[in-house]
Amino acid sequence: MIDNRFAPYGAFALRAGLGIMFIAHAYLKIAVFTVPGFAGFLGQVGFPGFLAWPIILAELIGGLAILTGFYARLVSVALLPVLLGALLVHAPNGWVFNAPNGGWEYPAFLALAAVVHVLIGAGAFAVKPVAFPASPAASLRPRLG
């Protein structure tokens, strides 16, 4: 059973944590790894280095949008490829994230958190929430009257 009194605040907590995580990872790529360093890393793992800036900007701008609740559900969907890419990069390293070069459990958990965010909604304090139809079939039914 879902407690409707507190569910919006739980969704907000999830949204805030997810948004802050994206912002922190963008900052990490800029300030610690540096953009050229991150581009080099992408090349080492089989991705084109020119994706460094688009990934960083997607994490930074997307993280801000998720944190503030600005079309946050759609942004979580849009950022799933970034999370799944990180999952693919870390998959060969083993399960736990403290394994050398990081394992896949953290990106997998974040991808799952993004999917949960899409399913439950933005929650409380969202600047511009997005509502999806109750079901795909509901949006196709003809309206009478």
From TrEMBL:
GO cellular component terms attached to this protein's record: plasma membrane
Localization per record: Cell membrane
A Pfam family recorded for this sequence: DoxX
Membrane topology listed for this record: Multi-pass membrane protein
Main location: membrane
TM stretches of this protein: 12-32, 38-58, 70-89, 109-127
Keywords, ordered alphabetically: Cell membrane, Membrane, Transmembrane, Transmembrane helix
Family: Belongs to the DoxX family.
Record protein name field: DoxX family protein
